[in-house]
Design a protein that fits this description.
The chain contains 16 helices and twelve strands. It is α/β, with parallel strands linked by helices. It has a single domain, classed as Rossmann fold. Helix 6 (189-203) packs parallel to helix 13.
Amino acid sequence: MTRSRLVALGLGCLVAGLVLCAGEFALILLESDPGLRAIEEAEAAGRPYDARTRSRVVADLRAQGFDAVPRIVPAALLEKDSEGDFRSRLAADGRELLPLAGISRRTTVLCNESGEWAVYESDRHGFRNPPGSWPDPATAGGSSNPMDLVLLGDSFTIGECVAPGDDIAEQLRARYPRSLNLGYSGNSPLFELATLAEYGTSLRPRRVLWIYFENDLAWFDLGQSSRAPLLMRYLEPGFDQGLAGLQPEIDSALLGLLSESLGSEPLAQPDEGGPMAAHARARARQGPGDFLRLAKLRQLFRALRAARREPREPADFALFARVLARASQLSSSWGGELVFVYLPGVWNFDPRGGAPRFADPATRERLAEIAGSLGLPFIDVHAAFEANDDPLGLYSYRGGSVLGSPHMNARGYALVARTIEDSLAQSGGGAR
C-alpha cells in the first residue's frame, strides 16, 4: 500500500472516530436517562428519594409496631420441574396450592418508583382494598346489594407504585362504591381468569373489568403460565382450588416461605432495592471508559435492533381468546358483563428508543377484534393517553430507563379511571 493510501486510510479512521465520539458526546448531553433525571431533579428540589430497600422498609415498620410484610408475587411461586412444567412451590393437605394474592390483613410494602415506598393494608384475602370493601359472605352476590365492579389485572391494576387512594379502583369507587380490586403484581391472563373463578363467582359483580397491559401475552407472562398445569385447569368449567375458604392455610404457607427467604429470591423482586439502588449502579458505571467504549451509541443501536426483532416467542392469541371466552362465560353465568380495558406502555409515547420486543403495534387491533368477536365492550385507554397534551407526564418517569419501564403515576391512573367511567356511562353503565 502506498504512502498516500496509508495517509488517506489514517485520516478516514480519524474522521470516523471523531464522528463517533461527537455522536457519543451529543447523546450524553441530549439524552439523559428519564428515571435518573427524575431522581436528580427531586434531589435538587429538596425531595430526595427514599434509598431504603424493601426489606429495610419492612424491618423499620416492624420496629414501629406494624405487622409488615413485603409484597409477594404469586407468579414468583411457580418453579420449573424436570419436565419443563411450572408448579407452585407451596402445598396444602398434600396438593399443590397456588395463592392469587399476598398475606391477608398485613401492612404490605409494595414498590417505589416516584421516591416514596407505596405501602397499603391488605384485605381479608390479601388484595389491595380498604377495610369493609368485601361484602358479608352471607349476602355476597345477592340481588339486593350486588357488587358494581370487580377489577382484574396485573401491577397496573393493583396500583404500582402509588399511595393508597391513587390506584384505579379507589378512584372508581367515587362513582362505583361497591368495587373490588382483585389485581395483583406479576399477573398473567391465566392468573386473572383464576382470580375470577376463585372469588368472582361468589361476588357476582355487575361488571368485571379485564384490565390488559401490553406485556400480558409475552413469553414471560402468558407464555410461562400456560406451562403451569394448575393454571390451565381454570379453562375447565367448574374448576377451582377453593381459595376463598383457605386463607388461613395461604397465610401460613406464605409466612413460612417468607421466614425462610426474606431478602432473597424468589420472594424478592427485581425492584427490591428501589430506584436509588439502580441509580447508584448506573452512576458507578459512568466514566471515561464508558465514553471510550461509546456506551450511549451502543445502547441506541441495541434499542434500534430490538425494535426490529421478532418476539422471542410469538403471542398466543388463540389461547388468550380461550381465556377471555371462559372469563366472559363466568361473568355471564350470574348475569354480569365482562369489559375489556386496554392500557398502553410508556414506549408508545417515548421518541427516544424502540419498544420492547413483545410490544407489537398491531396487537391492539387484534385484541379489539377478539373482544368484538366475544361481544365484549372495548375501552381503549391508549387513545385517551395519546390525546393527552403530555402522555409521558402520566408515568412515574418520562420514558424507558435503566430503572425499567415505569408504571403510571397518580395522574395516569386518574385518567384511566375517568376513561373507564366515561365509557361505562355512555354504554348505560352508571352506578346504581
